[in-house]
Amino acid sequence: MSSAARFVTPGFAGRVIAWQAAHGRHDLPWQQTRDAYRIWLSEVMLQQTQVQTVIPYYARFVARFPTLESLAAAPLATILEMWSGLGYYARARNLHRCAQTLVAERRSFSADPRENAGLPGIGRSTAAAISVFAFARRAAILDGNVKRVLARCFAVEDPVATASAERDLWALAEVLLPASGIEGYTQGLMDLGAAVCRRAKPACEACPLHDICMARRDGRQAELPKRGARKTLPERTRDVLLLTDGRRVLLERQPAIGLWSGLLTLPELSGESVDTLALRHGCRLLGSRKLAPVRHGFSHFRLTLNVLRADVDVIGPGVAEDGRQWLPLVDVDQAALPAPIKKLLRALTA
Question: Based on the number of CB atoms within 10 Å of its own CB, is 289 exposed (0-12), middle (13-18) or buried (19 or more)?
Answer without folding.
Answer: exposed
